[in-house]
């Protein structure tokens, strides 16, 4: 088997390594628990050695927090608007143990926020490589700990914003009064929908103005302790949609293309309906596809025919 | 010295005991670290015994979380709109060790939220007893861990809402990425003002949509690590003002009367200027005055002339 490229999707809490085949498909994937904030003894070099052990000496392309200031090697941001083919021209390279060379994809910076991303730019590149029709004008949402709302225009990331919905949910549940006395429960779609509706009906004041109602409703028995977390999740995701509409990241007149993990995307789609928004699913595996696309554009695959 | 009343302001984290003189002044104050969520061995009864030790056997009136479901004795809420003289008619009484009787002021519930308060209703009663001109129509703000925005009309609490600004600040700073790598610093009014302006300039999307900018600004060196906390504080307080304006708790056409600790009130006044709002200081010690007012209205002071 010819291995023209090894790809690394290397975030703050985990590392995924992809061994590509000639056609740009993923022949082998390894998932390691080594993120830029959680490394083995020996640091990045040791984590890298584990990730690629036994794989051929192909070019390596990495994206994500591995390129941050606290990462393996800082890969400076490119400012938006930024054409996606510009990523390939701005790789930071690192000659490295094991005789391999690792190239790191730059992150993006939106000066309007300011706001920054690392890793998601490669996913956007992968999505547009698979669905070129979106390159002209599209709205994307990558929900998660730090949701990214991205506007694509003319083959470029025109701008983006981060909403800290997932992290806000986690810290409020674990460390605030809203988590006190609540119980673990099965996913409660009804409580989630009630949270979304509460955010929507709060109007201009927004869902965060109703945060304390999660507590008051539980105290008076109108919300079961096992339903509080889902209510809170709905309230925060609903408020994220309100903010996205207010700042024109989302619009009732255009679909939003969702990129992310299935269960979370399903929640966002449920919330979108309550706001009259249309959310569309996107193909999976775009992270790996993005690495392949950037590697090709950077000429890293040129040796392929000789391998 | 005659002691017509002992007052207890008993919250979730602390207990203040007031020994009143004949004129309704506070002759002696004791501060104890016993809140409803933090009690000595022996629980409420032991904390109470310490608070009143050596004081005459006068009627006791308590307000705050001591009357919550997890408190000493549950004192049911009164729904808004609620006249302040109705508090005195709805005391919950508790015949108690030491031969004393403890009366507990009810909390208030706003069914529109729903929202609840315990303790603040007594402060409102104290404020209106000292400044009767406010009883007809006033807007109040009691900033803190859980800020309370209160609308007074016709001698009643017409409604109120809780904004969790203080708690949100604390959990984000201690447990989120926004607190990572930040340094302790002196109070930085400029960073605070910058956070307030960021919230204000975010328009309808609101300050929470700019939360991640605190991180991005620090990463690019545009916000010193020691200034992040004040920036975040300004952003959250600014967003609280935006919400209050959107939901008509605050208005550019009417002053807001501020009730609270001096340093925090100064911060809110600074933020109010950026939003074109007028915030006025209120007299201190209204908590004790509120207990005196409610006790008088309830007839607890009737034995006074015989003491």
From TrEMBL, chains A, B:
One of its GO terms (biological process) is D-galactonate catabolic process. InterPro entries: DGOK (IPR007729), DGOK_C (IPR042257), DGOK_N (IPR042258). This is 2-keto-3-deoxy-galactonokinase. CDD domains: ASKHA_NBD_KDGal-kinase. GO terms for molecular function: 2-dehydro-3-deoxygalactonokinase activity. The keyword Nuclease does not apply. It comes from the Bacteria. The keyword Signal does not apply. Coiled coil: none annotated. It comes from Rhodanobacter thiooxydans. Keywords: Kinase, Transferase.
